[in-house]
Amino acid sequence: MVNCSTIMNMEKIQLQAQPRTIVGRKVKTLRQADLVPGVIYGRGFEPLNIQVPMKDFQKVYAAAGESTLVYLDVNGQKYPTIIHDVDRHPVSEAIRHADFYKVNLTEKIHAKIPFNFVGESPAVKELAGILVKNLNEIEVEGLPQDLPREINVDISKLAAFGDQILLKDLAIPGSIAIQANPNDIVALVQEPISEEELKAQLETPAAAAEEVEVIKRPGAEIEPGVEPDEAEAPAEKKAEKK
Fold this sequence. Notes:
- It is a single chain.
- The chain is of the alpha+beta class.
- It folds into 2 domains: 4-103 and 215-230, CATH 2.40.240.10; 109-191, CATH 2.170.120.20.
- Strands 1-3-2-6-5-4 form a 6-stranded mixed barrel. The protein has a 4-stranded mixed sheet with strand order 10-7-9-12, with no helix packed on it.
- The chain is built from 5 helices and 13 strands.
- It has helices at 4-9, 28-32, 54-64, 122-125, 195-202; strands at 13-19, 35-42, 45-53, 69-74, 77-88, 95-102, 109-118, 130-133, 137-142, 151-154, 164-166, 177-178, 185-190.
- It is elongated and about 60 Å long.
- Strand 4 and strand 5 (77-88) form a beta hairpin.
C-alpha cells in the first residue's frame, strides 16, 4: 500500500512490502500475480528478500526515482532505503526485479540526480537555435533524506546563440554538495547548421565507447537482481551507493 499524500508532498514516501520466500525460477509466479520480487541490502545489513505490489511500486518509483528516500514497511519494521536498481525485460520492459539499498540517515551518500529541463528557450523558439543538453544528471553528496528527486534547469534563460547554463547557475539545495566542476556546462544553444555541415558531422566516425566497470552489489551471491529464469538478458548493474 502506498501513502499517496506523502508522495504528493515529497516529504516522506512509504511503501508496504512483505517478506519473500519464493526465489529462483519460481519468482515468475510472483510477477504473474502482479508482484515485484526485490531485495533490501546495505552495509552491515543481512540481505532481505521482499515482494511489493506492482502498482504500488510503479507509483513510488515514479515519485522517488533512484535518489529520493523510500521507507519500506515490512511487517511493521520500517527501513529507510533508496531504490538502487530496477531490472526490466529487454523487450517488453516489464519490471522483473527491484533492489533497495538500506541507508543510514546519519551518513552522507553519493547519488546521481537527474536534471529536469523546464521552460522554453527564446533562442530555440525564435532563432531556430539548437539546444544542446551537455549533462543529464549530476553526482551529489548528502544525507539520504536531503536528496531531491530531480534538479530543475530553466532553459528560458537561453535567449541568444552561445548562451550557456553552468552548474553554478542552478538552484541546488545547500544541504547537498555537487561532485563536479561548478563551471561545467549543463546546456547551451548553438546556431543552426546547414545540411552540408550536418552531413559532414554524420560522416565523422564516432569515438570509441568507453569501457564501463560494472560493480556487483553486496549480497549478489545470495540472490542476483535478475532471477535465473531470465538470466539470458541481464540488465547492466549500477555502481553501489557510497
